[in-house]
Design goal:
Strand order of the largest sheet: 1-2
Radius of gyration: 13 Å
Structural class: alpha+beta
Number of strands: 2
Mean pLDDT: 84
Shape: elongated
Strand content: 15-25%
Largest sheet: 2 strands, antiparallel
Low-confidence stretches: none
Number of helices: 2
Oligomer: single chain
Order of helices and strands: HHEE
Helix content: 55-70%
Length: 71
């Protein structure tokens, strides 16, 4: 199923770009680096990404995306 493989690859690319954007823009906690691979696996299974990252003081950055693809 080449089409499904391309969709999964596109999701992985999107997750990687989000990871790079967050880690380049903010000093994120070490737990984020450890937990993000689990989040990517969840994205591939569920088709949805939900990330909350503390960015300082009492502020957080929340990212929520949903993906439609054939599983």
């Amino acid at each position: 199923m080449p089409f499904e493989g391309r969709q999964r690859a596109a999701l992985l690319d999107r997750c990687w770009s989000i990871y790079l954007s967050l880690t380049n823009a903010f000093n994120v906690p070490e737990s984020f680096h450890v937990e993000f691979p689990v989040s990517v696996e969840t994205v591939l299974v569920s088709g949805a990404l939900y990330v909350t990252v503390p960015v300082g003081g009492d502020m957080t950055l929340t990212l929520r995306e949903e993906y439609g693809y054939d599983r």
